[in-house]
């Protein structure tokens, strides 16, 4: 991945900038394993116990996987507001067991029709640093999460739409105890310029609400009631649409002079989710399915798996040989990702060429016993890669219902707390900072930004769901998911070991190793092979469901607050 000139001024850490890496991830917030859950009929794994409880309740009532995902996602918007919610977007992969069909529901945000190339400049035309760009009112795109969930529900829901909002409405009204993770993130943030956000998340003395404080959000409860009654139309016109417009047009003290949000009611009215065809490829005894462009998640993950299969031997997870091969394949796959993938409505994406078996064999042949060039060039002549700012403030949930239907849903408002503007009790997104300055992911009106989100379904030889997974983590997501798949499908790791293993990988820069969890022997072994190393906090949040006999086992990544629940 190469940094283009304009975004070199984004205030990245020196090492990260030299390596061509996006800004540092949201702060780490501990490592606390939770016990796996066993379910004879259904399973849900989400990023928060409240959301898992809501999903399990829906599944016990006979709801579908889509129903449970909607209930859990609405709760996540209440209790995990830094990561996702009504003001953002998402990608949902759904398996319909009766029809034996995998659908990819695209709820990615779209750029306003008034957007122009690279809007994040000050009055003198100089590019803004990422911190200012993320908070700039011009960074807000048209939210797509609710519209996408409504479309999936119309196709695959069983319970009434409005009933699925009841758990989130109750929590928003009655409140919930501030969790250690939310408190740490708020304390790290320090303050919000938006008076509504400041008053909601901080006390009168400007201190982040302490752990255990009961946080109520009556404005969000009212918004959720409107959406429960009206569906996505509530965000297109009326009070909520006006609140969004007011928020992006309002002036905050930190705003660049004369900067004004570009999002209009015309953009909200024009938004439509898209049902796409999933990308599926064989790997060993299984078939792995992921999300197509504008997500680069599946193309990157499937390319890494295809190249892995083309090389001899199967290095064991945790060893130097595994880490070396995994990092080298990551460089190659991320090079193609940066150059070739964007919104297919604006430029064709050569998906078949990127995943062609012969092409992947040729790419894999570039991997030797020692570290190769860094960064690697793309293998296809697509476009000059442009720098991007995709951040790891995202959430993921994995669900299987009693009928064998499955959902893998990854959703986001982009940066932690998004644009730091609140409308109707929910933060707005800053997804326009996910665009690049050049190439396939260049900003354009109405365009969906490239995403690294990689909701994933795995099928066995009988065509049954074998595993459901995905992770938050910004542009590190493909590495997280590919490492999990290799550990699960080839490395002999248990589900708990899959989510707990130390993270590593390369985004076409140095080899990134999880801070404080990587053995010195592994680091020394990689240095001996010529690798440049970089320690980093890796706040993955893998939600994993795996078939176990006739039932399921679910486990959540210990780096976040997730829980599994079954029945």
List the helices and strands and how they pair.
Layout: H1 14-19, E1 37-39, E2 43-46, H2 49-60, H3 65-79, E3 89-96, E4 101-107, H4 130-135, H5 145-156, H6 166-174, E5 176-177, H7 180-189, H8 195-201, E6 214-215, H9 218-230, H10 239-249, H11 265-270, E7 274-277, E8 279-283, E9 286-290, H12 297-310, H13 320-340, H14 351-354, H15 357-364, E10 393-400, E11 406-414, E12 422-423, E13 426-427, E14 456-459, E15 465-469, H16 477-489, H17 495-500, E16 504-506, E17 511-514, H18 520-528, E18 533-536, E19 543-548, E20 551-556, E21 563-566
Parallel strand pairs: 17-18
Antiparallel strand pairs: 1-20, 2-10, 2-21, 3-4, 3-11, 4-7, 5-6, 8-9, 9-14, 10-11, 12-13, 14-15, 15-19, 16-17, 19-20
Spell out the key features of this protein.
seven-stranded antiparallel sheet; alpha+beta; 17% strand; globular; 567 residues
Written account of the structure:
The chain has helices at residues 14-19, 49-60, 65-79, 130-135, 145-156, 166-174, 180-189, 195-201, 218-230, 239-249, 265-270, 297-310, 320-340, 351-354, 357-364, 477-489, 495-500, 520-528; strands spanning 37-39, 43-46, 89-96, 101-107, 176-177, 214-215, 274-277, 279-283, 286-290, 393-400, 406-414, 422-423, 426-427, 456-459, 465-469, 504-506, 511-514, 533-536, 543-548, 551-556, 563-566. It is an alpha+beta fold and 567 residues long. Helix 6 packs antiparallel against helix 9 (218-230) and helix 12 packs across helix 15 (357-364). 58% of the residues are buried. Residues 1-20 have low confidence and may be disordered.
